[in-house]
């Protein structure tokens, strides 16, 4: 006897009807007049933000960090500690029920190690520098005898200052013991206040190692995906509602442009979109890569962009507002490494330069980080003719101490040598450890189950199509649209605003496409990417490539056409905070002269952003221009993201989603 199909209950009908009405109402709200566009440019140290419609096109910025109260941090984030809160409900829900119980979806990585540094090689590199500039060092020693640094001695290089004679310090207010402190206020915490300062972004990726902490000199607990997402949400909520003063009732009438790295992690970008659209509540989101925005901000359609970040330096070529596949290179050297190298040189010559603050630790103390960042900005340069004796004073203060410590030191040749680490990574004694830890984090992160929203069920089907690897270098969203047509005709479903092909039809069409010979060779051989670069570069390991080598490799990998290469060499755009070191462009140009192929007719020219555009704001300025030029059909709205996810995102992008690492 056949059973009749059960009819949905009245309650289920009402729930479906209510859901449909809610979606319809949300679409009406999103279709209303827009109030403005917010631009977010998250970095390893600063978060730049502001309205795209600002008259001066200048962003505001805050320190991109969250300080968690230690007991709160241990309770919420440490898997081995008993937690007073329930992870199975509330905004921090990140578990997924399975047939056998609950599966933990957080990514837990061990703390970074400090062993295995190449101290001997670092000593040799520094000795070579001192030998090459021995005449400058000798002249500096001669001039110092008649300068103010001669008054520094072992008695006055470190002395105690009473609190009454010291300038007042505005410490962060922790009288109410807030569970977290966001942004710049975290810099005014004392090392003994009981807060751990966490930076959620590092090297253009989510940070799964604790960069700084004010309560302890050791790793207290592993960082999980839950903490990364919670930190980003706290920072972005603070910026949106407190700094930009957007009313929560009107947030859906504001859109957001998110600047992402040139080589991005698709899973991480999806989580960012979830936070912006589904948690904070922006109406639409637009994505663009940082180097493409930098080229637009500098008024260049084709250029080689060198971006000196806080923890990473990236090099890539941009042609017609598209990052050229295969041209993206990066090194784990940034502005903070200049501060580290400056401190290392002062420590090495501590006795001669009367440097007594040798127990400082830039990687463990926010106060020490600020001290050496200010010292770097005040003293460092790359012009040997400007090397002069310099006496530098700084204070070390503590909230509950009756005395502050005043230090005086002679900067010496470190003012000139410290910024050289940007161009010569072999001066970084910890570079091998950093690359090893980065590879370890990447492998462990890839082996962990990701959050449910990060699953891309269309990825295999899209990547199997020949368009995914045979499309020309400049793949726009229009190309993505033609790629969708290759999947088959889009089936329009009643009651939806965007047609979606059925999964069965998509996979069937993908299987019927015969791969090209190049695809078959790539799949069978699995050979790594080879670069068309001069022979002398092949003997260098990627870790040891200098900045000039990376620029040559980027341009040579972008194109084999000598005329196009010459165009890139004539427009090498340097941006970022560390690009402002005096004489840095001349040093880069000098190093490039010996690396450019002899048969090349390239004229090397290092350029800066146009007048009125600060090198640190070039990316943000380009993003603000992009807002006024990008058609509305490229903006992804909240309803479409919730209902169609990555399928809709692929059609809305200004770049190719299926090539996150910019490979050829």
What portion of the residues fall into strands of 2 or more residues? 5-15%
Q: Compute the gyration radius: what is it?
A: 27 Å
The dominant shape is globular
Please give the order of strands in the largest beta sheet. 3-2-1-12-13-22
Distance between the termini: 61 Å
User: In CATH, what is the class of the domain at 119-174 and 335-436?
Assistant: Alpha Beta
CATH homology superfamily name of the domain at 119-174 and 335-436: ATPase, substrate binding domain, subdomain 4
Structural class: alpha+beta
* CATH architectural type of the domain at 119-174 and 335-436: Alpha-Beta Complex
- Tell me the number of helical segments per DSSP (H or I, 4 or more residues long): 22
For the biggest sheet, the summary is: 6 strands, mixed
Helix coverage percent of residues? 25-40%
Uncertain ranges: 77-116, 449-455, 457-515, 519-541
Number of strands: 22
Mean pLDDT figure: 75
CATH fold group of the domain at 119-174 and 335-436: Actin, Chain A, domain 4
């Amino acid at each position: 006897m056949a059973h009749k199909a059960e009819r949905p209950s009245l309650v289920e009908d009402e729930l479906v009807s209510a859901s449909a009405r809610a979606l319809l109402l949300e679409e009406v709200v999103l279709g209303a007049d827009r109030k403005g566009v917010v631009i977010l440019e998250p970095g390893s140290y600063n978060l730049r933000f502001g309205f795209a419609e600002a008259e001066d096109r200048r962003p505001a910025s805050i320190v991109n960090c969250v300080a968690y109260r230690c007991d709160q941090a241990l309770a919420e984030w440490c898997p081995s500690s008993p937690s007073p809160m329930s992870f199975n409900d509330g905004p921090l829900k990140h578990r997924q029920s399975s047939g056998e119980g609950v599966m933990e979806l957080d990514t837990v990585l061990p703390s970074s190690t400090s062993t295995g540094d190449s101290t001997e090689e670092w000593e040799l590199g520094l000795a070579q520098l001192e030998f090459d500039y021995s005449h400058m060092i000798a002249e500096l020693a001669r001039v110092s005898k008649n300068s103010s640094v001669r008054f520094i001695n072992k008695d006055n290089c470190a002395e105690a200052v009473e609190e009454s004679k010291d300038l007042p310090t505005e410490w962060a207010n922790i009288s109410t013991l807030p569970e977290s402190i966001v942004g710049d206020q975290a810099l005014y915490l004392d090392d003994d206040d009981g807060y751990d300062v966490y930076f959620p972004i590092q090297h253009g990726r989510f940070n799964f190692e604790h960069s700084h902490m004010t309560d302890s000199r050791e790793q207290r607990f592993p960082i999980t995906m839950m903490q990364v997402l919670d930190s980003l949400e706290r920072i972005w909520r603070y910026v949106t509602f407190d700094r930009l003063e957007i009313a929560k009732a009107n947030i859906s009438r504001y859109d957001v442009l998110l600047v992402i790295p040139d080589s991005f992690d698709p899973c991480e970008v999806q989580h960012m979109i979830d936070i912006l659209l589904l948690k904070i509540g922006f109406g639409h989101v637009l994505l663009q890569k940082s180097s493409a925005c930098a080229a637009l901000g500098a008024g260049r359609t084709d250029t080689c962009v060198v971006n000196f970040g806080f923890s990473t330096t990236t090099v890539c070529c941009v042609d017609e507002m598209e990052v050229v596949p295969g041209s993206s290179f990066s090194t784990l050297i940034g502005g903070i490494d200049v501060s580290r190298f400056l401190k290392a040189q002062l420590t090495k010559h501590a006795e001669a330069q009367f440097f007594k603050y040798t127990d400082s630790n830039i990687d463990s103390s926010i106060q020490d980080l600020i001290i050496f960042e200010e010292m770097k900005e005040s003293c460092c340069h790359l012009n040997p003719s400007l090397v002069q004796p310099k006496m530098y004073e700084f204070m070390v203060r503590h909230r509950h101490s009756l005395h502050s410590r005043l230090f005086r030191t002679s900067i010496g040749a470190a003012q000139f040598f410290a910024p050289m680490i940007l161009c010569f990574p072999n001066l970084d004694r910890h570079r091998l450890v950093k690359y090893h830890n980065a590879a370890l984090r990447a492998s462990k992160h890839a082996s962990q189950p990701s959050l449910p929203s990060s699953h891309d069920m269309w990825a295999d089907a899209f990547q199997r199509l020949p368009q995914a690897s045979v499309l020309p270098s400049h793949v726009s969203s229009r190309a993505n649209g033609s790629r969708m047509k290759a999947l088959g005709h889009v089936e329009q479903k009643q009651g939806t605003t965007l047609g979606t092909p059925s999964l069965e039809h998509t996979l069937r069409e993908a299987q019927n496409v015969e791969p090209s010979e190049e695809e078959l060779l790539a799949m069978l051989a699995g050979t790594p990417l080879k670069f068309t670069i001069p022979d002398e570069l092949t003997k260098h390991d990627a870790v040891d490539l200098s900045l000039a080598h990376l620029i040559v490799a980027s341009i040579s990998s972008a194109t084999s056409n000598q005329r196009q290469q010459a165009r890139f060499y004539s427009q090498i755009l340097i941006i970022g905070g560390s690009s402002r070191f005096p004489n840095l462009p001349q040093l880069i140009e000098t190093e490039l002269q010996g690396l450019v192929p002899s048969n090349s007719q390239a004229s090397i020219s290092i350029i800066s952003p146009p007048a009125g555009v600060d090198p640190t704001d070039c990316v943000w300025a380009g993003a603000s221009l992009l807002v006024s030029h990008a058609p509305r059909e490229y903006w992804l709205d909240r309803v479409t993201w919730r209902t169609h996810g990555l399928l809709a995102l692929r059609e809305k992008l200004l770049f190719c989603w299926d090539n996150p690492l910019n490979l050829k």
